Amino acid sequence: MKKKLVEIMNRFKQKKILVIGDIILDKYVFGNVLRISPEAPIPLVEVGWENFVPGGAANAANNLSSLGADVYVVGMVGDDANANILFNKLESRKIKTHLLIKDKNRRTILKERIVAQSQHLLRIDYDIKDNISREFENYAINNIIEIIPKMDSVIVSDYAKGFVTKRIMQEVTKLCKQHKKYLIIDPRPENKALYYGANLIVPNYDEASKIAEIFGKEEDMINKVGNKLRKIYKTNVLVTRGSRGMTLFTDETKHFPTKAKEVYDVSGAGDTVTATLSLALCSGANLEEAITLANYAAGIVVAKFGTSTTTTIEIENSIKNDK
Question: Terminal CA-to-CA distance of the chain, rounded, Å?
Fold first, then answer.
């Protein structure tokens, strides 16, 4: 099994993967708390340095690139300084950005985290949730029609920020079926009516519970939730469960315990999972092999700080060291 997993990863290089979804810029502000603010009983952070990393669908793209894929992104940003930062970050990772749309009437979504002594103190979201205009929706659909036939696999990374619309999803699912492209969706409960026609849906447990409208203790409800989603979407469902691992719902139910040795930060781990799954499946893996690789990848990134990625070398080492 270990040898087979490494052989699959050796085929990752230059697989063409398309990521469609909400493009986000993650900003980290690092500093020290030396005293309480004289203006209010809150920590006063003396800023040391800042770091920007691709977030949202751009994090899925970043994970794919780190694993060796040839990555294309369809999404929307504003026409602002944060968009320029995002383009630079993506292009430095050789991610194709020519299908990204700039809208001067929207701002680039920014999630800013304030960190001191390795502790998250605050997150500030510069958000937008309005659906994209009809004009830009048509433009995005034309881009999708042009690019999907050239891809090996497609990921929809939906953060419910307005880019993933009903028309876009209808076009994506139709084209993926027509051209026999594997379609993985990272869903959000707000858009649960849009996800019919995928090959695999990958929610976390909280998202799965809300989509299924089944609530309660996770270990008691996981089978009901997963089977309800499978019944709704008539496709395979993989529920990611943090430190509990992942549970796959197909004709049978199979649980995959976590490979994480330690959990430091779960930010963006879902993007790592969908990226690894997509690459593995178009590189000859069956579903269980792909999930096993994704499980190793997630175990690596949750041990890192912030929105992170991993590499095939790190995954291979993790596989070899796994007892």
Answer: 13
Tokens linked to 68: 């060796």
pLDDT at 266 (0 to 100): 65
| Amino acid making up residue 151 | M
Of 85, 82, 86, 88, the residue nearest 106 (C-alpha): 82
- Position 38 in a domain: no
The two tokens of residue 178 are: 């027509």
Neighbours of 212 (CB within 10 A): 23
Taking the model in full, what pTM does it have? 0.94
Q: Catalogue the active-site residues.
A: 271
Residue 37 lies in a domain: no
What is the identity of the amino acid at 175?
L
- Evaluate whether residue 222 is within a structural domain: yes
**Strand 100-103's sheet: what is its strand order?**
100-103, 70-78, 16-21, 153-157, 182-186, 200-201, 236-240, 246-249, 253-256
Residue 209 in domain: yes
Predicted local confidence at residue 265, as pLDDT: 57
What is the block-wise mean pLDDT of the chain (323 residues), using blocks of 10 residues? Answer: 92 95 96 92 93 96 96 97 97 96 95 91 92 95 97 97 97 98 97 97 97 96 97 97 92 90 68 96 96 94 82 92 80
If you write DSSP's letter for every residue of 226-272 in order, what string do you get? Answer: HHHHHHHHTSEEEEE-GGG-EEEESSSEEEE----S--S--TTHHHH
CATH code of residue 85: 3.40.1190.20
